[in-house]
Amino acid sequence: MESLKYPHSYHALEYLENCGCIILIGEELNTVCEIFDIYSKKRMKLPDLNILRENINIYYNNTTSYLYSLFGMNSTVIEKNKNTDVIEVLCIK
């Protein structure tokens, strides 16, 4: 298996059974998102999150192939562990 190209902590993982992939979203220090194909054992970068946040809830809709990243926390020096009201949608096909 390939090593992670980007560091991740306080991220969210989701296994997409219909395509045999694992989605890795969010992180406390960057907006990088990745997908890992368990059959080919390859990682690919997904579009970055628009808003930096950690501990995101994610939901995948099998019918529409949309991945929703919901809420999370934004930890800045000024505001520690501030809950966000951000929802982002990514089409996974």
List the helices and strands and how they pair.
Blueprint: E1 12-16, E2 21-25, E3 33-37, E4 42-46, E5 57-61, E6 66-70, E7 73-74, E8 82-83, E9 87-91
Antiparallel strand pairs: 1-2, 2-3, 3-4, 5-6, 6-9, 7-8
Q: Give me the number of helical elements.
A: 0
Q: Output the strand order for the largest sheet.
A: 1-2-3-4
| SSE ordering | EEEEEEEEE
In angstroms, what separates the terminal alpha carbons? 22 Å
| Oligomer description | single chain
What coarse outline follows from CA principal-axis ratios? globular
The helix/strand class is mainly beta
Describe this structure in words.
It is a single chain. With 93 residues, this protein is an all-beta fold. The strands form 3 sheets. Strands 1-2-3-4 form a 4-stranded antiparallel beta sheet, with no helix packed on it. A hairpin with a 7-residue loop joins strand 7 and strand 8. It has no helices and 9 strands. The protein has one domain.
Features:
93 residues, mainly beta, four-stranded antiparallel β-sheet, three-stranded antiparallel β-sheet, 9 strands, 0% helix, globular
Please provide a brief summary of the model.
The protein is an all-beta fold. Helix content is 0%, strand content 42%. It has one domain.
